[in-house]
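Retry 2 of 3 after timeout on previous attempt. Resubmitting structure tokens to design endpoint.
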């Protein structure tokens, strides 16, 4: 009798479980499509734009232009709509693409501030919003992208500070913020040991560089800070950036003697120090000749 009772209970709950499972599966398949349709509705595009026809329920969402789906979960993992003559505000519905790993909306005409809904994209590894008309402060929630490796926001009109929360991006490899109106460099930037590329030129950064700035940047290969209002002396700790290949500090207000430690950077290929108030000369150890060579530069 007890076994019959158990089978009866299973018979009661099984249809409910199957219904719930199917509901979840259906939601998973259609969630991204609904989100992208809402995104398309927010774009400022002409009626003849290719996305108005291609992004429709007549096609599988995984076949839409610029959309890539993962084979495992069959969810949208990448969205590349760069250089497609799109405009308007950045759609907040993008935050519903919870499996998104890469988002590229560069070279368009998007404007306004970044919607906070983007903070829900916790799987992001690539975020490229460069060459648009975006403005406002860089939001603190950028630090919620713990998996992010490549952040590109260059050629926009962002203002204010680089938020200290950026230090939470412990896997960040490339940071490209050039051609904005940012004011201060958060020292937390120089604590991200995974960084290989830092491009912050053509902003309004002021103040001096911290003496310890290369202590945690052992992987740094490219550093560009040209065209700002940085002052003070160039830190001697640059000698600790042993992998540095390109260093650009021109068009600032640096003073004093060029630190001799720069001459010990054996991987250095490009050095820009022009349009500062520096003095002295640099001795670079030539790998070809194995001897100290005098390198003169017009500062």
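Retry 2 succeeded. Sequence:
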């Amino acid at each position: 009798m007890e076994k019959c009772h158990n089978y009866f209970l299973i018979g009661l709950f099984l249809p409910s479980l199957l219904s719930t499972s199917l509901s979840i599966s259906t939601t998973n398949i259609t969630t991204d499509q609904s989100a992208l349709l809402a995104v398309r509705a927010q774009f400022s595009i002409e009626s003849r734009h290719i996305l108005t026809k291609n992004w429709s329920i007549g096609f599988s969402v995984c076949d839409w232009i610029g959309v890539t789906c993962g084979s495992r979960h069959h969810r949208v993992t990448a969205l590349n709509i760069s250089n497609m003559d799109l405009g308007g505000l950045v759609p907040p519905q993008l935050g519903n693409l919870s499996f998104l790993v890469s988002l590229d909306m560069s070279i368009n005409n998007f404007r306004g501030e970044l919607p906070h809904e983007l903070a829900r994209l916790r799987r992001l590894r690539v975020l490229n919003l460069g060459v648009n008309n975006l403005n406002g402060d860089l939001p603190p929630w950028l630090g919620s992208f713990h998996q992010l490796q490549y952040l590109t926001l260059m050629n926009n009109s962002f203002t204010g500070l680089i938020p200290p929360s950026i230090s939470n991006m412990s896997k960040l490899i490339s940071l490209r913020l050039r051609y904005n109106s940012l004011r201060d460099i958060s020292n937390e930037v120089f604590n991200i040991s995974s960084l290989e590329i830092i491009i912050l030129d053509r902003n309004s950064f002021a103040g001096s560089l911290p003496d310890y700035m290369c202590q945690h940047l052992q992987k740094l290969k490219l550093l560009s800070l040209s065209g700002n209002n940085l002052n003070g002396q160039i830190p001697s700790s640059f000698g600790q950036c042993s992998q540095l290949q390109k260093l650009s500090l021109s068009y600032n207000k640096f003073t004093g003697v060029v630190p001799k430690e720069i001459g010990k950077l054996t991987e250095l290929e490009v050095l820009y120090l022009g349009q500062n108030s520096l003095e002295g000369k640099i001795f670079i150890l030539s790998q070809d000749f194995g001897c100290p060579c005098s390198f003169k530069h017009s500062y």
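Attempt log closed. The first strand starts at residue 67 and ends at 69.
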